[in-house]
Each structure stands twice: as C-alpha cells, then as structure tokens.
Specification:
D-Maltodextrin-Binding Protein, domain 2; 6-stranded mixed beta sheet; 5 helices; 6 strands
C-alpha cells in the first residue's frame, strides 16, 4: 500500500517536470522564429503573369483567397508549402506579416463555411517550382531566388504600386 509520502514525491516530481516543460516551450518557439527569419523567401509566379512587383496588401488578398485574378484577368492559382514548413512560416512572417496559424484560420473559415477554397498545399520546394512553372497564373514562394528562368520572381513592396 503506497504511503502518503510516496504519493507526495510522485506529485512533486510530476509538477516539476510540467513546470520545466512549460519553461522550455517558449525557448523552442523563439529558436524556430529565428530560423524562420533566417530564410530569404522570394515570391515566384508563372511567366504568364505580367506583373513585376506586387504590394503587400495585394499579396495578402491573393493568399487570403479574396483576389481571384491578376490585372489581365488571368485567374490566380495559389500554392503554399505545408503548414509545418520553415519556408512557409518565413513566408507568412516576412512577406504577409501574419503568423502561419492566422493564415490557416482564414483558409479553414473559407472551407468550412463553403464560401471558398484553401490554396493548394505542396510538400517540397521542388514541387512548388514545378507547379508554378506549369500552371498559368500560379503564385508561390521558395526559400531563395530560383536559378531557373521558367519562373519569375515577383518583388513585394510595402506600398501600393
């Protein structure tokens, strides 16, 4: 039969482990944010898109699925990397200036309300490059400027062009 003292020690150790875990989570999160800021994410589009630069507000409208076509009436096809991707996190934070979970909430709301669709999620940057290259009106992002001329880099500016 366990004694009260044994029970107290077990609770004490469990509580200490929980406190230690709670203290370590913010440290891990801070390190992940540093990693995300280290990426030099660039926005890429299919060469069929005539724009050479885009405002941050227009980029947000495209990625929140509110803007459905480019200025020449070409439909937008929006691609993203998986939510857990460091490049996706960096894109959301650097280019959209929004946290990835907030962007996911916008997409979830569209899907679950039946008013829209989420972007097409891809598993790798290689797949992103391939899909942007082969899809007219496509927009996406990669961790560094691509060496391929089959896609176009879009400059993101803070103010409207």
């Amino acid at each position: 039969m366990p004694q009260f003292r044994d029970y107290f020690i077990l609770v004490h150790h469990s509580l200490a482990a929980a406190v230690l875990a709670a203290l370590l989570v913010p440290i891990a999160t801070a390190n992940e944010n540093l990693d995300a800021r280290a990426w030099n994410v660039v926005v890429i589009v299919n060469p069929s898109v005539t724009e050479t630069h885009i405002s941050r507000n227009m980029l947000r409208a495209i990625y929140s699925m509110r803007l459905h076509s480019w200025s020449e009436q070409l439909p937008t096809r929006v691609f993203v990397l998986t939510e857990r991707s460091k490049v996706h996190q960096a894109f959301c934070e650097q280019k959209l200036e929004i946290f990835p979970h907030q962007m996911q909430q916008v997409w979830d709301r569209l899907v679950y309300s039946g008013t829209g669709q989420a972007p097409i999620s891809l598993s790798s940057e290689e797949e992103m490059l391939s899909r942007i290259e082969s899809t007219p009106g496509a927009i996406g992002y990669v961790s560094a400027p691509p060496t391929s001329t089959a896609v176009k880099v879009l400059d993101v500016i803070s103010a409207n062009p």
